[in-house]
Design brief:
By secondary structure, this protein is of the alpha/beta class. The chain has 12 helices and 15 strands. The strands form 3 sheets. It has an 8-stranded mixed sheet with strand order 1-2-3-4-5-6-8-7, sandwiched between helices. A 5-stranded parallel sheet has the order 11-10-9-12-13, with helices on both faces. The radius of gyration is 22 Å and the shape is globular. It holds the Pfam family Citrate_ly_lig. This is [Citrate [pro-3S]-lyase] ligase. It is an enzyme of class 6 (ligase).
């Protein structure tokens, strides 16, 4: 398709030459490109890329315009094309993650700010659905809980361990009600539906605890976009953005005034995430309690240790680290594909 003096092309993500050209163009804007996107478009002028954009699920990403052509309407052209193609695929809600000094460009296109982590990044959204509708739904799902002080936790539980259970038990004892939000993003070896089920089963005895899916606004591809920044800045931008969205929108909607979390001696990203909570949540009158990990035979209980033991088939020790509900699942036929995946991989996750 021709657009003015430019040619609009859909990038073949299986074509190394085309992908390399996009990657090289994005590097000028300190943006990285991976083939883990659903669709990419580029505008060419005299056979050179002057604008590009991609989407992965609901996230519009890697939108960049040649500096000499900024202000010429190319941002609108790229975003409109991406939204139309996403709509053809049944996607009608869109996120954009951008630098603070570029946020106004997308606000002018109808995107509304969800949260920001100055000076690193701003998250905006458009389309059907919003952070406001998400918060209203979450408020309704927690309305039945006892009145009084309410705590919140965000957990991944890959898989659910006695360590997770201990932190939540402490919160349940010290508060009238507890909301446990399970990360919905599919980035772990244990799929979300299994992680969610194991958390619910492991907490079935607590009548003041509700377990809910975290959804798209908590530790998701939108709030943790690894493609956008580099090095330490990536972790800082991601964790502070996620913490800010929780503090400004999610916690108030559900009446959460205290957030509990286990300390993190192993994973640097989780450790930075905890620090972001400690830095940001108190500014919004939300207390933060970081609980030391429980230990078994002198070793800290962790999901990563459980996965390592699954790799080694160390069932005797696994039994000391997880609730019976988790152990029974791990010993069931349904867990075989997950265990095989763990045993054939060297990934920590």
């Amino acid at each position: 398709m021709l657009w003015g003096t430019m040619e609009e092309r859909v990038i073949n993500l299986n074509n190394a030459r085309q992908v390399s050209a996009v990657r090289e163009f994005l590097s000028r804007f300190s943006l990285t490109f991976t083939e883990q996107v659903d669709y990419t478009i580029a505008l060419y002028k005299e056979d050179s890329i002057v604008a590009t954009g991609s989407f992965s699920g609901e996230v519009l990403r890697n939108i960049a315009i040649d500096e000499s052509l900024q202000g010429e309407g190319l941002t609108s052209a790229v975003v409109s094309h991406l939204m139309q193609e996403a709509g053809r695929r049944g996607i009608y809600h869109y996120f954009i993650f951008t630098k603070p000094d570029k946020a106004h460009l997308f606000s002018a296109l109808g995107f509304k700010e969800v949260g920001r982590a100055d000076p690193y990044a701003v998250l905006l959204e458009a389309g059907i659905g919003s952070i406001d509708s998400y918060c209203k739904a979450m408020a309704a799902l927690t309305a039945h809980l006892p009145s009084g002080k309410r705590a919140g936790l965000v957990v991944n539980c890959n898989p659910f361990t006695l360590g997770h259970q201990a932190v939540i038990a402490k919160a349940a004892k010290e508060n009238a009600a507890v909301v446990v939000l399970v990360v919905s993003e599919e980035g772990s070896v244990f799929p979300f539906d299994i992680r969610f089920s194991l958390v619910k089963q492991g907490l079935a005895d607590y009548d003041n605890v509700v377990v809910l899916p975290g959804g798209k606004y908590i530790v998701s591809a939108a709030t943790f976009p690894g493609y956008f920044t580099k090095g330490d800045e990536t972790v800082t931008a991601q964790t502070r953005l996620d913490a800010t969205i929780f503090a400004k929108h999610i916690a108030p909607a559900m009446g959460i005034t205290c957030r509990y979390m286990g300390d993190e001696p192993y994973c640097l990203v989780t450790k930075a995430y905890n620090q972001a909570m400690l830095d940001i949540l108190p500014q919004h009158r939300i207390d933060v309690l970081e609980m030391p990990r429980i230990s078994v035979q002198g070793n800290a209980v962790s999901a990563s240790r459980v996965r390592e033991l699954l790799r080694q088939e160390g069932w005797e020790e696994i039994r000391t680290l997880v609730p019976d509900t988790t152990y029974q699942f791990l010993r069931s036929p349904a867990a075989i594909p997950i265990i095989e995946k763990i045993q054939s991989s060297i990934s920590r996750h």
